Amino acid sequence: MPHPTRDLPLVPYPRSIEIRSGEPFRLGDGTSVTGDADASAAAARMLRARTGLTLDGTGPGVIEFRLVAAGDPESYAIEAQADGVVIAGRDRAGLFYGMLTLGQLVARDDDGWSLPAASVADAPRFGYRGVMLDVARHFHPVETVKAFIDRAAGLKLNVLHLHLTDDQGWRLDLRSRPELTARASVTSCDGDPGGFYTAADYADIVAYAAERHMTVVPEFDMPGHTHAVGVAYPELAEAPVVTDHVLEVVHAFGGGIPAAGVPYTGLAVGFSSLRIHDEATYDFLADVLGELARLTPGPYLHIGGDECLGTAPEDFAEFMERATRIVADLGKIPMTWHEAGAAARICDDTVGQYWGLRTPDGIADERARSFVRRGSQLVLSPADTTYLDMKSTTDGPGLTWADGVTTVERSYAWEPATLIEGVGADDILGVEAPLWTELVRTAGDIDAMAFPRIASAAEIAWSPAPTDSTARTWASFSERVGRLGPLWAAAGIAFTRSPEIPWADASAAS
Ligand code: TNX
C-alpha cells in the first residue's frame, strides 16, 4: 500500500469498508464475470472499458454477482480476496451500485490491474438522491439528457427531475394540447433555438434512466412560470406582471420586457400566471397532467409552485390545493417547491422541495415544515449549496444570486438533518442538486457546471452522516474526488478543474 492513511478513491463513500491484509485480487485477460445476467454483462462492459482486458472466462479469477434476500433496499456488499470477488446485492439496484463501487476500486500498479482485499458493506442514507435538469430555459436534446443520466447514475444518484416547462418554453409534446409545442417551444433563453420531446422521446429517456436505476420526476411548473402556456393558449394566461424586480433583471441580463403572446427569451422570473379563477385552467390541468401521468411510470408528478410573485396568496393557495388534488386523483404523489406549503389544504402526501438559502442560525421556515406536519417529507435543495448553476469561482460562468460563489467546499459543507428547524433525518425524503439552464447551452456546459459539485450532492445523499463516518471530511472528499478526475476524463466528462481539488493526473496510479 503506497498511501496507507488515505481513504480509497470512492465517491460517494460507502457505509463501511475494511481493507484486509491479504494479497489483492488480480484481474487479467480471461477473468470471468458471472452470476446475475444483467449485472455481470454490465460489469464486464464497464471493466473492459476501464482496463482494456478481455474478461471472457478463459483464465483464472472470478467476479460473481449474486442477488441476496437480506439487507436494506439498494444495498450491496463486496468481498474481495486474492481468489475471487463476490458482489451481493439486495436488489438489482444494489447490484448496480456494487458494480459502480467495483469500477472505482480497480486500480493499476506495476503488475497490472487489481482490487485490494477488502470487505465493503454499503446502503444509501436517503432513498431520493436527485439531480434536476432544466430543459425549458435551454432545450437539451435526448442524447444530452442520456449523457447526464449516465453521469448522475455513476455517482449513485437515482432521480432525474426534468424541469419541462417554464416561461421560455414548453418541452413535452401532448396530444391533448398540441399548440403547446407547436407555438411555445421554438426558442430558448437569449433567442437560442428551442425544441421539444415527443412522447416517444420522453419514453426513451424514462427507459434509459430506469436501466440505470433512476426514476424520472417530470415537472410542469405552475401557476407561475407559465408565459409559454399563454403563447400557445392566450385565454389561459394572465397578462405579465412587470415589477421592479423584472425590470432589474431585464436591465442586468437583457432579453426585453415580457409581453403577452410573444415568446420570452430573457431571465426574469415571477411575472406570469395561469388564470386561477377560470375553470378552463383546470380543464387544461386535467388534460396535461393526465397525459403526463400516463407517460410517467414513476410515483411523482412535480407541479412547481415557485416564485408566483404577482399572485395573491389566497389565489395561489386555491390553485395549489386544486392542482395537488388533480395529481392525487391520477394516482400520483404531488411534488411542489416549498412555497406551496403556505397553502393550508394541499394534499397531505405532497412532497415539498426546499430551495431557500441557509442562514447562520438554521432555517425557520413554516412553509417547509408544513409538509412534515401533514405527515409527508421534504427534498432538500438549499440554493446556496446545491444549485449547480451558481458560479463555482469568481471568474467562472454562472449566476450569483444564491449568496455569491458556491465553491466545491461550500457545496460539500452542509448537513440535511440540521438544515431546517423541526425537520429531522426521518422527515427528509432526500437531496437534489438542480441545474437551471438560463446560461447553460451545451452538453459541455452541463458537465462544466455539474462537475465536480454534483459529487458533493451525491455523497451527502448516499453516505452516512459525518458523525458516523471518518471519511466524511472535506480533506478526504476533496482528495477522493481528485483521484476520480482521470476516470471522469476517460469517460469524456468535461468537468471543471476546480482549484480547490488536488486533481490527480491521468498517469498517476490510484
Ligand atoms: C430560481 S429556485 C428559480 C428558477 C431559476 C433559478 C436560477 C426556483 C424554484 N426557481 O426559476 O431558474 O432561480 O438560479
CATH architecture of the largest domain: Alpha-Beta Barrel
Overall mean pLDDT score? 96
Percent of sequence in beta strands: 15-25%
What binds here, in terms of ligands, is:
ligand TNX
Determine the structural class based on helices, strands and strand pairing: alpha/beta
Question: Portion of residues in helices?
Answer: 25-40%
| Main sheet record | 8 strands, parallel, barrel
- Name given to the CATH homologous superfamily of the largest domain: Glycosidases
Give a quick summary of the entry.
With 510 residues, the protein is of the alpha/beta class.
Detailed description of the structure:
The chain is an alpha/beta fold and 510 residues long. 32% of the residues lie in helices and 18% in strands. The protein is built from 15 helices and 19 strands. The strands form 4 sheets. An 8-stranded parallel beta barrel has the order 10-11-14-15-16-17-18-19, surrounded by 7 helices. Strands 1-9-5-6-4-3 form a 6-stranded mixed β-sheet.
Considering the chains and any ligands shown, give keywords for the structure.
single chain, 510 residues, alpha/beta, Chitobiase, domain 2, TIM Barrel, eight-stranded parallel β-barrel, 32% helix, binds ligand TNX
